[in-house]
Every structure is written in structure tokens, then in C-alpha cells.
Amino acid sequence: MKTTFLDFEQPIAELEAKIEELRFVQDDSAVDISEEIARLEQKNYGLTKDIYSKLSPWQCALVARHPQRPYTLDYVEHIFTDFEELHGDRGFADDKAIVGGLARFNGQPCMVIGHQKGRDTKEKIFRNFGMPRPEGYRKALRLMKLAEKFGLPVFTFIDTPGAYPGIDAEERGQSEAIGHNLFVMAELKVPIICTVIGEGGSGGALAIAVGDQLMMLQYSTYSVISPEGCASILWKSAERAPDAAETMGITASRLKSLGLIDKVINEPVGGAHRDHRAMAQSLKRALQDSLRQVSDLSPSELLERRFERLMSYGKYKEIAVD
Amino acid sequence: MSWLKKLLPPKIKRDTPSGRKAIPEGLWSKCPACEAVLYRSDLESNLNVCPKCGHHQRIRARQRIDLLLDPEGRFEIGAEVVPVDPLKFKDSKRYPDRLAAANEDTGEADALLVVQGAIKTVPVIVACFEFEFLGGSMGSVVGERFVRGVKAALEQRLPFICVTATGGARMQEGLFSLMQMAKTTAAITQLADRKLPFITLLTDPTMGGVSASFAFMGDLVIGEPGALIGFAGPRVIEQTVRETLPAGFQRSEFLLEKGALDLIIDRRELRDRIAELLTLLTRQASVRSVA
């Protein structure tokens, strides 16, 4: 697959094009230029590392939305075995923007739930761009309760621009569907391990992101509103999205320093989309560690810990009042 | 300045700001729904419901508390919790400046007011959103005051009522605001565990992060007539689907029809009917005869 380059990656794109050209020339060349190629590859690695070490929050949002970034089903393939997808909310429909099912994690049965985006146009439409409708959240809820009934840990993967803002979604109770998930997840008696793998878009993301561990991939984002949405409300122009991204604090490192997430999982040099396998490996290790941390707790200890954690969210001060 | 204005001698120049201010303000009010011109004191004595068409105007949090609770034995919970600026947020204005301006305008320190009291002698705790304070948006203070209200309800085994009037989560506190959705909703699971009634009254408007957290988790979910209630705002939906929205879309009556609300209650009957509903839920004698 040919890498899609983002605007700020132009220097990398140029260098990679040059390397490609040399490789082509090498085949029918008398002089050995493999050394030169190796040197350029080294340079490219350094350049990529350099660019990615200085990403602005907005550039980070672009990487989080990269069309080649691994999605939930890619991780399912690399990390889990025996995946059986389960469909539908048993009430209205099967929402393709959320996938879920039974699987094994290192041999241990578990439940996997995640947002799912599509890669090409047809698939994007099929997955509704990863924007769930109420039936998607209700499917997730059903699967979580199923996991609770049979004592299975739940892994959730968050990657959505947000819940779908459509007429039908409103008619079927988008708000209720999201709120109900928050309500049930606060008291679900099995471990819930949540990882933001791409875009964590507002309430539509949170609806499957309440749990015992909250992790983010290095270049994923998590925010209360999209940078474009925030900019168009506060600056009256979506063009100011980079400013909104900066001030809202949407990146994994910023959110970690604010104490809102537990762990940042490093991505391969140049982002997860450059090496799906390597990304999946480090994600798997992080999931193992997270699960180990909570799997020894009794259900009541687990819930108490989760509750305390939820109650601790927020920054305010207290003053004397008469 | 247009050429006509330049020609006019100064003393007959119209539309000067001072000229406008000469009209005494606040005596009359026009109903935004039926355009009837109403005498303000009539409107107020009718709880800001238009006597001609029944349109429910938005009211302030403290007015809401006054119309719901008995005058005696009230006290405020969580007033000690006040906002900070965790992100050093700045758009065209700094967040602390926005907070200060909102405080100046409303007299409130943040967008949620929690009061313990009684409705027709039935003890309750009421949390009420102040829409005039940054659009009733939910940030850390709203979340924490809400939780303190719930805690008080748990300790004293009282019903908890929340009146919403909000645009959603507060952008200026970023992800802290989003997490208030999880925090407030987790808190009300405890009311449910102890079988204490939780009632939500959704008023105009109830959107976004508040709508999509605890608002629909009430044992009873009540709408005020004509209130705009939904997850995404009408403009966002219109831009997304590129269709015009059906008439009455996202209004209380629409939600009732779609099965999202238990009932709609006219503001003028609110106090009586909520008191009755509470006594029914908690298996107490009727308080219908109480004034």
C-alpha cells in the first residue's frame, strides 16, 4: 500500500520518492548505489522522527484521522483470536459504525467493542464514517451486559468523529442511548479497558469509554468537541481549528499531564499507519498490563475504584461561603 | 454616514442611541411565539408563560427554585465550589474573563444552582441549570455541585430533581467537561441503587453533553412545553443531512410522540404535579390539599 502523506509530511514524501527512484535505477545500473540508498533511508528515518517529535495538536488530529491508520478490526486481527462478531441491538438494526463480539485475548475469553471506520469511499459510507446511531450504542450496551453476565473482561477501542448528528438518530434517542451506556458502564461488574486509537470525538466516544483504564495511542486525540466545531463556535470560523486544537488540549501527552488518562502508548516512528503490526504489538502489551492491574480486584473493589475515579474528574476551587 | 444623514441638521437626526433609551424599558414584553404584546407584570405573575398562547419563556434558575419550592427551609448546596481555568483557555477572550462577565450578568458563580427544600412539604433536593451563565454549559463546577447534591440526597434519603437548561458541555474546560458527563451519570447510579427517586425536568434548551448523560436517566423524564431537546443542535443536523428539518423537530411534543419523554407538564401546574408524582413514587399520602 502506498503511504498517503499529510501536508506537513512533504519533506518525508520527497525523500521517499527519491529513495524509490534510486531503487529503480539500481536494478539496471553498473555502479552499486545501495550504500547511498541506505544512507538516505537513515536520513529519512531521522527526518520522520524529527517531524513527528514536534507535531502540533492540530497535526496530531490529522494523524489521528489518517486514512491508513489501523482501525478496530485491524487490531482485532492482530491482537485477538477466535473473534466472533455479534450483530444488532435486538430492537432496530445492526449499526456498522460499531463492531463487537466475543474473542480470546492470550487465550482468555473476552468481549471486544469498538468504533469502526471505512477505508475507501464505499466502505466509509457503509461504516457511516465511524459515526454511530443509537442502535450502535445499544448494541454495545447489550454486548457489555452479556460480558457481565458471563464474567468476561471488556476491551473497547475508541475511534469516532462523534455520534451521528442525523434526524433518524435524534428520533430514536441518541441522547438516551449515550446516557444509558454511561449509566451502565459506571456499574458494570467486569473490568473495562478503554483505548482511544484514533479520534475520540466527544459524547459519541465517551459512550464506550467509561472504565477502569483509559489509554490513548500517542497520536490519537480526545476532545469535548472537534477542533473545527469549537473554532466555528468560539472564533466563528472553522479555519481557526488549529488554534482550537491548541487551546483545548486534545493530545495524549497533554491529557496525561492533566491527569485525565492513565497511559500513553507510543506509536512506531511516523505514526501507527506506517506499521500496523508494530503498533498492534505495543498495544497488546499495554492491554495485558492494564488487564493485569485490575483482574485481581473483586467486583466490589473494582466498582469502588471505578467510582472514585469518576468522581475525581474535574478542576475547581473551594471558597468560604456564609 | 450616508449622504442623507449628512444633509440633515443635527437636531432632527434620528436613531441616536440616547433617543432609543428614552423609552422606559421592561414595562411591556412581546411574546416571541404569538407576538402578543404583554404587560410584564402579567407575564411574571403567569410564571413567564404567555397568557395568550401558552408559550413557555426561559426563566432564571432562582425563579425556577421559587416557583417549585416552598419558601421556608431552603438552603443552597455546593455554593463553595467555584470555577478555575485548568487549560488557560483563550479564544477571542480569556476564559476567566468570560467567567467574570457571566458572574457579573447573572450573580451566579457557575451554571448550576443546587438547593435543598420542600415541594408542598415533600422534602427534596433540586439542581437547576442557569442558562444565562455561559449557556448553562456543564464544566467541572456543574459536575461537582451536582454530585454534592446527589450525596446530600443519599445521606438524607431524599428525592433528587434536576431541571436542565443547557447548550451542553463547556468547551473552555475541554475534556474535563466531557468527563462531567460520566461523573454525573455515575453519581445517579447510587440514587438508583438506593431506590431514591430521580426526576429530570428538561426545559428549553437541553442539548449535547447534558442531554446525552443523566438527562434521560431519570425515573421520570418530564419536558416543558415547546422545549428544544436533543443531542446535536438543529443547525449541525441541517448541515450534515442537507435536508430541512421536520416541523416541531426536537421539541418536547415531538419527543413525547417518539417515546422519549414520560410526560409534558405546563409550568403553571408543575409544582402540584411534581409533588403528587413524588408522593406516588415514595408511597406517601397525597399533598393535594397543601397550598
TrEMBL record, chain A:
**Annotated EC:** 2.1.3.15
Gene Ontology CC, one term: acetyl-CoA carboxylase complex
State the UniProt keywords alphabetically. ATP-binding, Cytoplasm, Fatty acid biosynthesis, Fatty acid metabolism, Lipid biosynthesis, Lipid metabolism, Nucleotide-binding, Transferase
Which GO molecular function entries does the Swiss-Prot or TrEMBL record give? acetyl-CoA carboxylase activity; ATP binding; carboxyl- or carbamoyltransferase activity
Q: Which residues constitute the signal peptide according to the record?
A: none
Q: Which family does it belong to?
A: Belongs to the AccA family.
Question: What does the subunit section of this Swiss-Prot or TrEMBL entry state?
Answer: Acetyl-CoA carboxylase is a heterohexamer composed of biotin carboxyl carrier protein (AccB), biotin carboxylase (AccC) and two subunits each of ACCase subunit alpha (AccA) and ACCase subunit beta (AccD).
Q: According to its UniProt entry, what is the function of this protein?
A: Component of the acetyl coenzyme A carboxylase (ACC) complex. First, biotin carboxylase catalyzes the carboxylation of biotin on its carrier protein (BCCP) and then the CO(2) group is transferred by the carboxyltransferase to acetyl-CoA to form malonyl-CoA.
- Name under which the protein is recorded: Acetyl-coenzyme A carboxylase carboxyl transferase subunit alpha
Origin species: Zoogloea ramigera
UniProtKB/TrEMBL annotation, chain B:
State where the protein is found. Answer: Cytoplasm
A cellular component term (GO) from this record?
acetate CoA-transferase complex
How are cofactors bound according to the entry's free-text note? Answer: Binds 1 zinc ion per subunit.
Keywords of this entry: ATP-binding, Cytoplasm, Fatty acid biosynthesis, Fatty acid metabolism, Lipid biosynthesis, Lipid metabolism, Metal-binding, Nucleotide-binding, Transferase, Zinc, Zinc-finger
List the GO molecular function terms.
Answer: acetyl-CoA carboxylase activity; ATP binding; carboxyl- or carbamoyltransferase activity; zinc ion binding
Catalytic reaction annotation: N(6)-carboxybiotinyl-L-lysyl-[protein] + acetyl-CoA = N(6)-biotinyl-L-lysyl-[protein] + malonyl-CoA
Instruction: Give the matching Pfam families.
Output: Carboxyl_trans (PF01039), Zn_ribbon_ACC (PF17848)
Q: Which domain of life is it from?
A: Bacteria
InterPro entries on file: AcCoA_carboxyl_beta, Acetyl_CoA_COase_Trfase_b_su, ClpP/crotonase-like_dom_sf, COA_CT_N, Znf-ACC
Identify the enzyme class: transferase
Q: Which cofactor does it need?
A: Zn(2+)
Q: What is its EC number?
A: 2.1.3.15
Query: GO:BP terms for this protein?
Result: fatty acid biosynthetic process; malonyl-CoA biosynthetic process
Instruction: Write down the SUPFAM superfamilies for this protein, in alphabetical order.
Output: ClpP/crotonase
* Chain ranges of the CoA carboxyltransferase N-terminal domain: 27-291
C4-type zinc-finger residues = 31-53
Pathway given for this chain reads: Lipid metabolism; malonyl-CoA biosynthesis; malonyl-CoA from acetyl-CoA: step 1/1
Q: Give the binding site residues for Zn(2+).
A: C31, C34, C50, C53
Which purpose does this protein serve, as stated in its record?
A: Component of the acetyl coenzyme A carboxylase (ACC) complex. Biotin carboxylase (BC) catalyzes the carboxylation of biotin on its carrier protein (BCCP) and then the CO(2) group is transferred by the transcarboxylase to acetyl-CoA to form malonyl-CoA.
Quaternary structure per UniProt? Acetyl-CoA carboxylase is a heterohexamer composed of biotin carboxyl carrier protein (AccB), biotin carboxylase (AccC) and two subunits each of ACCase subunit alpha (AccA) and ACCase subunit beta (AccD).
Q: Which family does it belong to?
A: Belongs to the AccD/PCCB family.
Q: What is this protein called?
A: Acetyl-coenzyme A carboxylase carboxyl transferase subunit beta
Tell me which species this is from.
Zoogloea ramigera
Lineage at the top is: Bacteria, Pseudomonadati, Pseudomonadota, Betaproteobacteria, Rhodocyclales
Q: Which gene encodes it?
A: accD
